[in-house]
Design a protein that fits this description.
95% of the residues lie in helices and 0% in strands. It is mostly helical. 2% of the residues are buried.
């Protein structure tokens, strides 16, 4: 959204520059548009970096959750085997 706003600002500056009467005014408008473009590019780069960091954090969280599920299923399987062995021992004892 911010990049779109900055882009619209750049277009507005260019439009004003085209309507300017002197070459100096046009050069000032072009310089302002270039600065706005650079600001938009910087904002885009910062946004991309934040998105990459967020993606990395999500990936790490997903891996951790998968590991916890794996460990929980291993514990449940072990408990089930122990319960089966206990049930068999009880059945043989009776």
């Amino acid at each position: 959204m911010r990049i779109r706003t900055l882009s619209l600002a750049a277009v507005a500056v260019l439009a004003l520059g085209a309507a300017a009467c002197t070459e100096a005014e046009q050069e000032n408008a072009e310089a302002a548009a270039a600065e706005t473009g650079e600001t938009a590019e910087d904002a885009g780069s910062a946004l991309a970096e934040e998105a990459a960091q967020l993606g990395t954090a999500i990936e790490a969280g997903a891996k951790e959750a998968a590991q916890e599920v794996d460990e929980a299923t291993d514990r449940l399987a072990q408990e089930a085997r122990e319960q089966e062995a206990e049930t068999e021992a009880d059945a043989r004892g009776n």
